[in-house]
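Record type: monomer structure entry
Structure origin: computed from sequence
Chain ID: A
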Amino acid sequence: MPSIKACLFDLDGVIVDTAKYHYLAWRELANDLGFDISLEQNERLKGISRMESLEIILSIGGVVLTEEEKLARAAEKNRRYLELCKQMTPGDTLPGVRRFMEELKSNRILLGLGSASKNATVILNSIDMLHYFDTIVDGNRLTRGKPDPQVFQLGAEDLGVGAEHCAVFEDAVAGIQSAKAAGMFAIGVGAPSVLTEADLVIPGFETFSYTDLH
């Protein structure tokens, strides 16, 4: 395997667990429309865009909205989600992540963020991790969502590193597919039974180090 010169990280579920805040905000929206969504149904929303998520929720509730209403509902969900995210602190960072990134930095590995979230900068500021990243590719720059490779391709371009020298850390199936489509080494963070297409799967960063990467 070629040497790793850059590591690209997804945000939600890899660096910080914002899934609970997404769920609370989406559930409030669903309740307002007269139905409920379960945690299991919420799993279907991982790693996809806000409007795609809204379409899935509306189909769960059997609710039909005009395009104008959809945009208004999506904006309201995002406003509520941001309110929740601003309450986050550095203590909300997932275990081992900060130590692992510091290790990468001291070994001159470039770091990039690749996330569909349009709120990545707000979240990274809240948890005091913005300074770790050499580039941020978020939903504000993307025209195509995961599993399209665009997010990681842009990250590698920004860093000036070839795809074969990039490792991607992802917790969602669509994200692993995106990394593989970009020609990168895909490391799944989560369950091997779910992230079957990853080159390597780790439970988290508590026991994973720079040495393991090589």
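Annotation 1: The CA atoms of residues 48 and 125 lie 22 Å apart.
Annotation 2: Residues 19-85 form a domain with the DNA polymerase; domain 1 fold (CATH 1.10.150.240).
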